[in-house]
Structures are given as C-alpha cells and as structure tokens.
Amino acid sequence: MPKNINQPLSDADIHRIKRNWRFLKENLFQHEIRDDFMVEAIWDLPDFEKIDAEKTPEEKNEAFLKLLLQSGPGAYKVFITALQKKNSIHIIERLENTELTKKCPEPSEPLCEFVAAIDFGTAYSGYAFSSREDYSMDPFNISTLPWNEKTASYKMQTSILFDADKQLIDFGDQAVLKYTTESGKKEFYFFHKFKMLLYHKDDEYDKRRLTKNTPLSDINGKKMRAIDVFSAAVKYLVDHLLNALTKKKLDIKGMDIKWVLTVPGIWDDPAKQFMRDAAEMAGIRGTDLAIAFEPEVASFFCMRLPLEKLKTFGEMKFHGFKPGTQYLIMDAGGGTVDIAIHRSLGSSMIEEVAMASGGAWGGTYVDRQLLSMFERIIGKEEFDEYITKFPSDYFNICKSLELGKRNFSTSSRYFICEIPLSLNQECRRAKRCSLNELIHQSDFKRNLTYKEDKLYLDVTLMKDLFSCVCDGIVKCIQKLLNSQNKTKTILMVGGFSESPYLQETMKNAFPDHEIMIPHDAWLSVLKGAVLYGHNPKLMHSRISKCSYGVDTFVPFNRDLHPPKRLRLVNGAEYCSRVFSKHVTMNEELKADVDLDQKIYRPVDQSHKTTRFDLYTSTIENPEYVDDKECKRLASINVKIPEKANGIKFRFTSVETELKVEISDELTGNIIDVNLDYFEEISESKHSCDITRDK
Q1: Would you say residue 203 lies in a domain?
Q2: Does residue 204 register a pLDDT over 70?
C-alpha cells in the first residue's frame, strides 16, 4: 500500500469534497481519471479492486471519494489535474467555487449521532433519518423508507383511527381502509386531515383559544381531546420508524437520537408548544426534540441542492446561493402556505430578512371548495349523511378530486371526477331526483356535466375554485416583494407547489422573477428537517412576528395614564395592565441569544409567590395588554426565594422557540418555573401583582 494512504487531505480540500459529495457521486467518471493516482504512486491495484467491488456507478464513485479523502495532501492536486485532462471543467469550477469563508463556518462535527425527522402534514405525513456518519460523508444521504411496498410511497395520509374506548387502531392509509370497510360494523373515532385545528386567524383567537382540553371532532362529529389525538399520531410515527430501522437491521440502541418535528412557519407559540407537548406525551424527551419551521428547513434543503436539481421558469439566470443572495421561499403544503424571505450568508447559513407570512391557502382548501360544491348541489345534511353511510365511496371521490387537482392546468379542457353509483342512488332516495337533475337545478348547471359516472367541471369553474387560494398566495407574495425589492428569486416547495395550475399562476404573476422548484418538492421539508437536526445553527437569525411583554403595574402618572387604569395598592397609586415590552415585532432574533432583561418586584412585598402574565402584540410599541392588538400568551407562577427583593426576567431565543429565564436579583440563581400556555382563565380575571423597575 502506498505510504500516503490513511493520511488526510488538507482541511480546505476535505471541505470542498464533502460539500459537493452528492454532486461528485452522481457526476464523476472515476474509471477515466484514476490511472493518474497509480502513476503518482498514490494508489495501487488493491485500491482499484476495492472500488470495483461496488456494484453501481454511484457506489463506485463513492468508494473512490472515500479513498481520496485519506490519500494524503497531494492527492487533491492529482485529482484536479486528472479532471483537467478529461476536460471536466464544470466539476473543477464546482469544487474551486465552494465557499470556504471563515465568517460563518459550519461545525466540523454534527452534534448528535442520529437524526430522525417527522413531517406531520395536513394531508400527508412521513419521516426521514440519517446518522452522523452519513451526514459527514454526504449531507444528502438521507433515508426515507417506503411505508407501503405496493405503492413505494414515502408519506401516508394524515388519518388516524381509534376504537370505541379511544385506543389507537391504525394510522395512515391503513386507518382509512379499516374505517371505510368496517365502519358499519364497529364504533370508531376517525380523524382525517386534522392538523389545521392548531391554526387560526387573529380574529378567531379568543373564540378558539387552545387548551389541553380542546376537543377535536372526528369525521362524524364525535369528540376526543385534541392533545390525545396528536400525541397518538406522533407516537405511531415514532414507533413505525423505530420498527422499520429494526427490520433493516440498523442498530440505534444507545444512540443519541435528535428528533425534529416540523410545523408551519406562521404558527403561533401556543401551537408550537402544543406539538411539543404532544411529542413528549408520545415518549420523546424534551431535550431530544427540536421544533423546526417548514419553510426554513426547506430552504436548507434547496441551498445544498446542485443547480441541475432545481427546475427553473423564466429567462433570468440563477447563479446559485452565493453570500448575499436574497430569495423568497414559498412552502405550499396541504393546509398552509408559508412565505418567507431569506438571505444566504455562505457556508449553508441563512438569515430571515422579512417577517414570515402566509395563510390557510394549502391544497386541501381546493379540495374543500370542490366538496362544498357537492353540498350546495345535494344539500349539506344529505351529503354529510352520504359520507357516514358510504365512507369508502366518499374517499374514492376525494381520491379522484386529488388526482384531478394535481394534473389540472390552465391548458386543461376540463376537470374530471369519477362519481360512485351510490351517490346517484342516494340523491334519488333523499331528494327524489337524480344527480343530473340536481345539477341542472343548481348554480353550477352551466359549469358541470354528468355522464357515464363521471363529473366534468369546465375550466371557468375550476379557475374560480383555485382562485380562492391562489389569489391569497399572490397578494401575500406581492406585499413581501414590495418591501424587499432586491429579491428576484422565488423558490416553490411543498406538495401543492407541484400543481401545474399554481406554477402557471406564479409565472404569470411574477414574470420578472426567477421561479425555481426542486425535484421532489413534496420531500423538501422532510429532508430539510434532517439537515436542520444535524446543524440547527445554520439558521443565523429570525424576525420576530410580534412584540412580547409582561403585564405589569407602573407608578401612576396623572399626566400620562388614563384615570380608568388607576389602582391603589397599600396606599400607593399604580397604572394597571401596562405592556412591559421585552421583544419588538420585526426585531432580529439571533439564535441562542439572551434578550432584554428587566427586574420586577411584587407590589405587596409580603407575598411569597407572584405571577407573570405574558402577552404578544401585533404592533411594535404596545401600551397596555388589553389593547385590541394584544393577546394573552402564557402565565408563570413564581415562588419568591427568601430574602429576595426583585426577580430578573428575560426571554431567550432557543432555535425556533422563545423561552423564559427567571432568576433571583440578589444571588443570580435561576428559579425553576413552568410556562403555562394553556391555562383556562377569563381575560377579565387577570391577577397581575408585579411592578417593573425603571
């Protein structure tokens, strides 16, 4: 064996090769360049035999690269010279242009031995994983095991089935199959596409405040606690993954596993905490769990992709994610569409440039519009009864709508949905009319044609149905781009981004922008979550979506404060319900940085416990916590240490979550507290008893 074997390349050359591992594995022709290593006495025949022992060209390339990494400092120069001889200039340019900046280095070693990511979607859910060794050699060596050997699908429907005693029976496609085939024989609780319970608009907040006892209605209106449904779904995914690893004889016993659970970027703090609590109820330790924003992890995924893996629209030429490159990323999933603007900092690091936005414009809302059409034609009560009586046929309608939606484009002549015979029969029974007669009596008579068990929807109607979500997406993107005119690139990820109609809508709405979609856009979040789990520090900073503060008293100033806010405590005058701000909306939040700290004291010094009520606001400088822009976020009950006079309070930014740190003013000792997002308390019964130091 030549003497250089088992001696590494230089750090810079190792970095170049590892950062381009997947590209090299797919594009090298190692058999054409390896003779140079023999000539330079770097390798000999046994080394060639190791390479040739592999089966596929990619496996041979990978064996070549692994050998190259341990072939001594001079091997990289031989490698480049051999590429030059074969005129492989594109590979040389790729290697030499690899960012080696010291400003934002990626840690040389990932922090955990194994990362498992769960993409808990509105319509479909799945998991992916990779080991530290896999990640070090090739970040894209990410495994996504098929759920079903017949379909080879890497995701399953987000559907879950419980028995009459609320015990889990099954999840995914099997849950749908068991429910549709056995629902007339047994009592079930069946939940389908239930994730969006955790998203609500601002004007719905007070009506739908999330608690641990929030009920979730199944497909027939029967209720279970939402937290029990979500935790059972997460546990199923965790157990399925661990069992799959066992079947593959991948031994992870004793490994340090980092779990990553994805959530929409527009979700609020209680929704994120709800998912964390559900995951911990499912058996994942809190310290082993990261909550990741879907558009961020998709951004990590796209930044690392070779440019040839990005499908582009438009005439502009995209030159890659060089430092300073600013781009808009749109994650269009089943329930929500998340929209954010990111900037590349080099070394795969990114920062958020503008506050993330979005709405409930996912693909399932097109489905909802289509299904509501049946309700308007047949009648809502009658259609609900049909769903209960013929669940299998109902899900066949849903499947037909889903397939049609995926293929529909502006050039389509019509949209076709297959209609089971049972629907026409039920129309005759319940309405004394055929489905065709009901269509002709409806507002859709000029847009629908029913013949030979197929429903034909014309293009005009379909455009109207799609516009319900596409118009909201376009307006939101236009608003963000107007605030960031340097952004000329749009990345589309998520399952709904693969819709031809949405793609054409985006091209027409933004003709002056480069629009790109990665291959397998529907897996961008899932695979990006694995990358995030290995190195969450790649997200340099985020923009706060709201202001955060504490409900407090301050000394009353008759020149500043309204008389209605005057409160007397032990003879002293205070202004009540003041928003004591710690974080400002649109403020840059850097990862793992402690934020503004303030000192608070009990108004009544004899109190042994006190309470902090935390609030958010949608304006930058809120005055009072009961202003219309403010919402109660959470509460903390604090036991005051003996001899303590004041309590230090601050927020800390820990990855995607804001945490609270409370300490004794005199000793600096941290006080253990629990942040309660889900306390069921009337807003009129606030119990603030703290005042803030100036």
Answers
A1: yes
A2: no
Q: What angle do CA 232, 294, 131 make, to 5 degrees?
A: 75
Cα gap 184→190, rounded to integer Å: 13
3-state SS record for 24-60:
HHHHCCHHHHCHHHHHCCCCCHHHHHHHHCCCCHHHH
pLDDT digits (tens, 9 = 90+) for 24-58: 887 888 888 888 888 888 888 888 888 988 888 88
Task: Give the DSSP H/E element, type plus range, for residue 194.
Answer: none
Structural domain including 448 reads 363-456
pLDDT score for 150: 62
The helix/strand/coil state of 312 is strand
Among the ranges 132-146, 194-208, 272-286, which has the highest mean pLDDT value? 272-286
Q: How many helices (H) and strands (E) would you count in the chain?
A: 21, 30
Q: What pTM does this model have?
A: 0.81
Please tell me the distance from the alpha carbon of residue 401 to that of residue 398, in angstroms, as a whole number. 5
CATH number for the domain that contains residue 78: 1.10.533.10
Q: Domain boundary at 96, 127, 158, which?
A: 96
pLDDT exceeds 70 at position 314: no
Q: Cβ-count burial of 434 within 10 angstroms (0-12 exposed, 13-18 middle, 19+ buried)? A: middle
Cβ atoms of 366 and 405 within 8 Å: the answer is yes
User: What is the widest separation between alpha-carbon atoms in the chain?
Assistant: 94
Type of residue numbered 72: G
Strand-pair category, 539-543 with 349-359: parallel
Q: Give the whole-angstrom CA distance, residue 74 versus residue 80.
A: 10
Element (H, E) at 14: helix 11-19
**Is the pLDDT confidence value at 92 over 90?**
no
Amino acid at 96: E
pLDDT score of 250:
75
Q: Is residue 471 included in any domain, yes or no? A: no
Residue 686 burial (C-beta neighbours within 10 Å; 0-12, 13-18, 19+): middle
Higher pLDDT, 20 or 627: 627
| CATH number of the domain where residue 670 is located | 2.60.34.10
Percent of the chain with pLDDT over 70: 92
More reliable by pLDDT, 486 or 108: 486
Task: Please list the residues that pair with 116 across neighbouring strands.
Answer: 129, 259
For the chain, state the CA radius of gyration.
29
Same domain, 296 and 431: no
57 and 28 in one domain?
A: yes
Q: Are 534 and 135 in contact (CB under 8 A)?
A: yes
How many domains does one find in the chain? Answer: 4
Q: Decide if 78 is inside a domain.
A: yes
Cβ-Cβ contacts under 8 Å for 96 (sequence gap 6 or more): 16
In a domain, 683, yes or no: yes
Per-residue pLDDT tens over the stretch 550-605: 999 999 999 999 999 999 988 899 999 999 999 999 999 987 677 888 999 888 77
Tokens of 317: 């030429």
C-beta separation of 440 from 427 below 8 A: no
pLDDT above 70 for 71: yes
